[in-house]
Amino acid sequence: MYKSKAYKRNDSATIEVDNYELRRLILESENKNFEELQSKNQDLHFEYLDSELTKKTGIEVFNKDVLKTLDLYSDSNGYNNAAEILSDESKFPGIDVVRFGETINVFLKRKTFESQSIIKSYYDCLDMYRDYYQYEEIEGAVRNKVEAIPEEAFREAIANAIVHRLWDVNAHIRVSMYDDHIEIVSPGGLPDGISEKDYLEGRVSILRNPILANVFHRLD
Fold first, then answer.
1. Could you tell me which residues are beta bridge partners of residue 56?
2. In terms of CB atoms within 10 Å, which of 83, 105, 114, 211 comes out highest?
3. Which candidate, 176, 162, 63, places its Cα nearest to that of 118?
4. DSSP state of 106
5. 10 touches 50 (CB < 8 A)
């Protein structure tokens, strides 16, 4: 710190650190993640999360013991940010989806999925994908489902965008749909400790939001 400003070393230079990064560095020094911090909103409900967990895991009673098991609630701090992100009242950014026409100046459809559980936004995003990239084709007496873009790849990319984004950045995940490809932008750069080369070669994986990742893992 110098004259109320924070700095850090970057290779051979010293650079100023903005408030966002300073907050992350402080959390990192305490071995914490943003998703673990206490949520500002403690009046949360989880009907959608309850429904999905019941379908996927077969739980019979959804209560605070379940939320504690998922690391979404503690007696000392109440709900954390991860809990709010998964809650029905989430005020965190969602997913902004645009289907373009022949050029980027032509918007065929635009939907922003927000103010709801991020799990619901995930499924809403999948529904929009299916409207544009899946259709049925009849060959002889057989009706075949055709995927212009593989659903498995799209599902994985959206899940990763949610699980690995920086949630303290006030920006939506952006999904741009074109005739022959889809672009997905997730707020935040590479985590500290991983280079672009490491990322592209898939040699290192750093879990940025382990609580959210665990919930998504339990929901397959």
1. none
2. 83
3. 162
4. -
5. no
Cα–Cα distance measured from residue 85 to residue 216, given in angstroms and rounded to the nearest whole number: 12
* CA 79 – CA 148 distance, rounded (Å): 41
* Pair 152, 134: CB distance under 8 Å: no
What are the residue ranges of helices labelled H in 58-150? Answer: 64-69, 81-86, 118-133
List beta partners, residue 84.
none
Q: Is the dihedral of CA 200, 157, 92, 119 positive or negative?
A: negative
Query: Token pair for residue 188?
Result: 């935040």
Q: Rounded to the nearest 5 degrees, what angle is found at the Cα of 167, between the Cα atoms of 164 and 172?
A: 90
CB 161 within 8 A of CB 186: yes
Interatomic CA distance for residues 127 and 4, integer angstroms: 48
Distance, in Å, from the CA atom of 23 to the CA atom of 196, rounded to the nearest integer, reads 23
- pLDDT string in tens for the chain (220-residue length): 888 888 888 778 888 888 877 887 787 777 788 999 999 999 999 999 999 999 998 888 999 999 999 999 999 999 999 999 999 999 999 999 999 988 888 889 999 999 999 999 999 999 999 999 988 788 777 888 888 999 999 999 999 999 999 999 999 999 999 999 999 999 988 777 777 888 788 777 778 899 999 999 999 8
> How is residue 73 written in tokens?
């609630």
